[in-house]
Each structure stands twice: as C-alpha cells, then as structure tokens.
Amino acid sequence: MTSYISALIASFRSDDEGQGLAEYALILALIAIVAIIALIFLGGQVSKILSQVGNSV
Q: What CA–CA distance (Å, rounded) separates 18 from 14?
C-alpha cells in the first residue's frame, strides 16, 4: 500500500514540467492578445508614421 502511495506522489511531482509549459503558453497568448489590441487601436497612427518615413527616404 505504501509503494502505491509513493508511486502516486511521484507521478504528481513529474507533472511540474507540463504545468510550467502551460504557464508559458498562457503568458505568450496574453502578450499576443495585447499586441493585437494595440495594433487595432494604434494601427492608423503607425501606418501614418511609416508612410512619412518611407516618403522621406
């Protein structure tokens, strides 16, 4: 019975790698969402600035 509990605890400890990967994926998704929202709201201004830079070159 003790070996079964020890094996069960060991299996939970080995899942830490997957949890860390999931956290990094969530952070990456959050950064992507923030970048998309920023482009939606600032897209016109960025386009205007890039056009001015292109025209001056």
A: 8
